[in-house]
Specification:
- The protein is built from 14 helices and no strands.
- The protein has one domain.
- By secondary structure, the protein is mainly α.
- It is found in: Membrane.
- It comes from Embleya scabrispora.
- It is a multi-pass membrane protein.
- Pfam families: Wzy_C.
- This is O-antigen ligase-related domain-containing protein.
């Protein structure tokens, strides 16, 4: 539905749904890859993703410099979001490891990447990384995957609701002061307010995919601002309420897949918290507009929801009757 509604929202008006559709294709392709390979290669696939993120930090050490325009994504918070997915991938590989040495090595790698998120100076990324590693360390205690998935979904819903409420309050003094105490900037709250205003003004089809920048007064008045800093409010502003509901459907579908996953509760717990870390950060920033981040999210979710390897199951030995 999300892929079908974008062209409808762009029909006979200014709007370019291509970039949005490419983002959907990126995360969907990565999810399929993770799901197909994650069952048979439960350890190597996430370990390679974690290794790739680690190599990124070695090749581009400025990624952990704390600079707002740090490479390789040229946005420090997006670098942090990618590293969080690397932490999740390392933890997925760790909980799937049979060898205690491999498990310990992967958890150490995850810990190093957690330190990397702090170096990016992204508060949301650092908090998400700590949550993912903490979940991995306590994963053996998880008995019911549904509990962790439900709590993760509630956490994500709470953050989304908070951004919408702050946007609706706009630039009222108490709203801005409260946002500042929460570590948010007045400019970000104003962007959310623009998103709410545009949604109210164009509730059915929005302003058109990819047109938030042209229609936001805050963006037009500040050359350093490039997006709505919330994938939910940008979606509703550009594609109307139906577009926002499509996004809700996509995220909700992921949580349902995690709930019904055939993987162990430990794997599902790590995957659920890692995905929630992305949703929370994407609700307050524009990290969902970076293909590398979306690809990493897709692989992590795919591995966490992959079916078990049939060839790895022990074959039943037929009973021998005594005549």
């Amino acid at each position: 539905m999300a892929a079908l509604w974008a062209p409808v929202a762009a029909a006979n008006r200014v709007g370019a749904p291509g970039r949005y559709l490419l983002a959907l294709a990126t995360v969907a392709g990565a999810y399929v890859l993770g799901r197909l390979c994650g069952g048979r290669f439960a350890l190597p696939v996430p370990a390679m993703l974690a290794g790739a993120v680690t190599v990124m930090l070695v090749v581009w050490p400025d990624a952990v410099s704390g600079d707002a325009t740090a490479p390789p994504l040229d946005y420090g918070n997006a670098d942090g979001a990618l590293v969080v997915q690397g932490v999740g991938a390392a933890c997925l590989a760790a909980v799937a490891a049979v060898s205690g040495r491999w498990r310990a090595a992967l958890l150490v790698l995850a810990g190093v990447l957690v330190v990397g998120t702090f170096a990016t100076r992204s508060v949301a990324a650092a908090a998400g990384a700590v949550a993912v590693l903490s979940t991995a360390l306590t994963a053996p205690l998880v008995r019911r995957r549904g509990t962790v998935v439900a709590l993760s979904a509630l956490c994500a819903a709470g953050v989304v609701l908070g951004t919408v409420v702050l946007g609706a309050l706009g630039t009222r003094t108490e709203s801005v002061e409260g946002a500042a105490r929460a570590g948010l900037t007045e400019r970000r709250v104003q962007l959310w307010g623009d998103g709410v205003h545009l949604t109210k003004r164009f509730p059915v089809r929005g302003t058109g995919p990819g047109t938030f920048v042209e229609n936001s007064p805050t963006v037009r008045s500040d050359a350093d601002v490039h997006s709505a800093h919330s994938m939910w409010l940008r979606q509703s502003a550009e594609q109307g309420v139906p577009g926002a509901l499509c996004l809700v459907g996509v995220v909700g579908w992921v949580y349902v897949r995690l709930w019904r996953s055939a993987r162990s509760p430990a794997v599902v717990a790590v995957g659920s918290v890692t995905f929630t870390a992305f949703v929370v950060q994407a609700s307050m920033d524009y990290v969902a507009e970076f293909p590398a981040v979306l690809a990493a999210v897709g692989v992590v979710v795919g591995v966490a929801t992959a079916g078990p390897d049939v060839r790895a199951r022990p074959r039943a030995v037929p009973a021998v009757g005594v005549s």
